[in-house]
# Entry
Amino acid sequence: MKMNNNPINWFPGHMAKALREIQEKIQLVDLIIELVDARAINSTSNPLLKDIIKNKMSLKVVSKIDLADEEITLQWQKYFKENQIDAVFVNLNNKTSVNTINNKIKEYAKKLQEKDVKRGLKPRNLRVMVTGIPNVGKSTFINSLAKKRSAGVGNKPGFTKAQQWIHTKDYDLLDTPGVLWPNLSNNDAGIKLALIGCVKSEILPNMELAKYAIEFLDANYPNLLYNKYMLNYEKDFSKFLEKYAIKMGHLFKKQELDYERSCNQILNDLKNGLLGKVSWERVNNG
Ligand SMILES: Nc1nc2c(ncn2[C@@H]2O[C@H](COP(=O)(O)OP(=O)(O)OP(=O)(O)O)[C@@H](O)[C@H]2O)c(=O)[nH]1
Ligand SMILES: [Mg+2]
# Structure
């Protein structure tokens, strides 16, 4: 299914500003962490970041693995390893995951400090910034690292704009993330981004989104629909929606079936992982 309207007209207008902000912040740090969503790793990766980062150290943090298809997550892990892209896969609501990231950042801090010592410099704290497109978990990430350290938040003098830093024993973290725009170059990127909540779903008609989702589930995860709704999908979205609306008692003014409400419900169930673990993109298929 193809949609004619560009669903993310929001982004181009803000791209220049976001780019400027990121470029300014990048100068302040040693390590750039890009958060992406495990359910759509291609679409949630920024297309330009690699070029902006240049020779700085970078780490990909793949969030929300608790909502993603485990098999596809494994494929991505293999892919990153083979391509020497440093990545950690996490559920940011899980303490163990946060520890994993923390240890990873400490490895980078150690590397930097060893370099400093080699050059005869006094070793200093690694400086880290977090980037990512909307809703990938940037704030959750920063808060969990900050809470763990119960670090004070304070101004670091000497920059034109006072930046807030979170200090830990091994590294300093910029407390405001850089917001990036998504990768729209692959097939149906806008739809997938709406389905995982990275762009406002109002941008696309809910009916279209739900149709895409149901057809995708039927093709890729045939059991999930029946398991959740106890309804068979007979290759006909309208028919499925009708059966669903009747079953759920979604009525408009107590008479007509309220399909909008039904679509909303299905989309929310999906976004919250209530149908099961679903990934919308595999490695190498956009
Ligand atoms: N299940 C699950 N939910 C997560 C995870 N990480 C973040 N979330 C949820 O995702 C939503 C968005 O997280 P935020 O931390 O606000 O994301 P953000 O990138 O700061 O979003 P913006 O500020 O809008 O750009 C919240 O409801 C989080 O609880 C994760 O690993 N697993
Ligand atoms: Mg945030």
Observations:
- Residues 138-139 surround magnesium ion (ligand 2) (CB under 6 Å).
- Residues 1-5, 149-160 have pLDDT under 50 and may be disordered.
- Residues 205-271 form a domain with the Conserved Hypothetical Protein Ylqf; Chain: A; domain 2 fold (CATH 1.10.1580.10).
